[in-house]
Amino acid sequence: MTQIEIAGKKIDLMYNTKAMIGLSKRCGGNLEDLASWLDGKNSTETVEKYSQLICELANGAIFRHNKEVEFGLVDGEKQKFYDDDFFLAMIEPHMLPDFQNAVFGAISGGTDFTVPDGMKVQEHDIDLEEIEKERKN
Fold first, then answer.
1. CA–CA separation, 59 and 51 (whole Å)
2. Is there a contact between 100 and 50 (Cβ–Cβ < 8 Å)?
3. What is the pTM of this model?
């Protein structure tokens, strides 16, 4: 599970159905609009939206934990859900670059990958290759 740390507290982030529904509502009902929704009109709006995104992912992890406790899958006590104000109060704009990797790691299933040194990172464009082949012929 992906984690972030705020004020010395580790917070789990999970992109599950609960988080997906919350994010979809915030994006106007369509998750395909997530990227444009996150692209705020100004830096203040962007920080606010990332705070909301982190809140949904953190609450997704809490929702899962609470259900695991409720159904006896794990021992422990239920946790309280976060509200937007917690993250608005605790996240400072300079923290966003660190949190962006964690957020998108959580959304992509927590898959970490490292690009080896000296490796070029670029997409393979089969359409462009086809056009270039046709030009040569």
1. 12
2. yes
3. 0.76
What is the b/e burial string over 94-106, where b = at least 16 CB atoms within 10 angstroms of the residue's CB? ebbeebeebbebb
Q: State the average pLDDT over residues 31-45.
A: 80
The CA distance from 131 to 34, in Å, is: 32
More confident residue, 40 or 133: 133
Beta bridge partners of 3: 12
CA–CA separation, 34 and 68 (whole Å):
29
Instruction: Determine contact, residues 118/106, Cβ cutoff 8 Å.
Output: no
Q: How many CB atoms lie within 10 A of CB 63?
A: 18
CA distance 54 to 106: 10
Q: How many CA atoms lie within 13 A of 73 on its CB side?
A: 8
| CB atoms near residue 11 (< 10 Å) | 21
